[in-house]
Every structure is written in structure tokens, then in C-alpha cells.
Design a protein that fits this description.
elongated; Maf protein; about 30% helix; 7 strands; single chain; binds inosinic acid; alpha/beta; seven-stranded mixed beta sheet
Amino acid sequence: MKDSQSNQMILVLASTNEGKINEFRQFLSHFELTLQAQPKGVFVDETGQTFAENARLKALSVAKVTGHCSLADDSGLCVEALNGEPGVRSARYALNDEARINRLLSELDGHLNRRAFFSAAICVASPSGEVLIEVEGHCDGVIADSPRGINGFGYDPIFEVGSTGLTFAEMEIGQKRLLGHRGRAFALLEPRLKKIL
Ligand code: IMP
């Protein structure tokens, strides 16, 4: 459905996280879209086994409730030596960022293989229950021995990106956006979004 004032398509961003909504707005700023935040009181249970499944669940539910197309993402960190954990449980791995980092470092204690990747799945769905776009971006790296850097959020201080030798938390926002999983997912999304607008 279109916004009656701007005549632009309305896209509801399926998230209640302010930081994420702002990031979505920046990534989508050059599109002729009227972006709306998810209405308060909408809760979607993230029961999927993969990032893509969870993004789809969120986008379909929010599109159905609002009657507008919706964009959702789901992301997390997968560590090779921990069989892909924390994966889709990244946000629920411990009570706060510091505890999540400490838990991950202690689980990895003694492991020589510190390879890991971040993944971000994005889904755009229609109110009639159609999945319009699905993309997934990855970023390979290793888990550092201890936290470094002050930027970013979540696991950023312990995720060192391949050739850069820097953790996400040591990078400027522009560099993280270029190399990071969400930036890569949005780069894949852009041409496909253009086609449906
Ligand atoms: P969700 O996508 O909001 O369900 O949660 C993803 C969780 O994965 C976050 O709470 C963070 O713990 C972690 N995560 C996802 N993307 C990043 C990132 O770019 N940096 C650090 N942590 C991230």
C-alpha cells in the first residue's frame, strides 16, 4: 500500500531496536520509500533454526499485522569450534554484551581454531503473505583472545575481521558497514528492492 501524501510505498521495519531501525533507515535512505517503525505491542517469537527463517517469520508477521510490506533481519555470530554456536541464540547467549563475550571466550578456551563468521539475513514480505526478497550477508573472521576497541555493540570487541587485523569495535562505522555482514546483505538487497518499487 502507498503513503497517501508522498505516493511512496510504505515499508515497515520489523524491529523494536532503535539502533537497528536507525541503521536500516541509513541503508535505505536513497530509496523512494516511506519507512515506518514496527507498531508497539507486536511481538514475534523467533522460533526459527536459521537466520533466514527468523527474518522470514518477523517480516511475514509484521506485514500481516500492519497491512504493509515489511523488512526484517536476523543476525548473529557462528563459531566454528563451537559447532556454530551461539548462532541464532546470539542475543540470548547471556544476559548482557559483557556476559555474552565472557561466556564465548571461556567456551573457546583451549581451542586453537578460532574461526567464526557473522551472518545477517534480510527478508521483505507482503501483507498477503508473499516472501518478496530474501538475502543473506556474511563476514568471516576470528575470535580475538580478549576484547579490543570501543565502537559498535554486541560481540564487536572480540570479532577480528580477516585481513584487517582489526576487531569490529576498532573500526570506524564506515569500514564496518563496508565489510560487515549487514552491509553485505543490504548490498545484495538493493538491486532486488529497486526491481519491486
Ligand atoms: P537479532 O538479530 O536482533 O536477533 O540479534 C542478533 C544478536 O547477534 C545481537 O544481539 C548481537 O549480540 C549479535 N550481533 C548481530 N550483529 C552484530 C554485530 O554487527 N556486531 C556485534 N554483535 C552482533
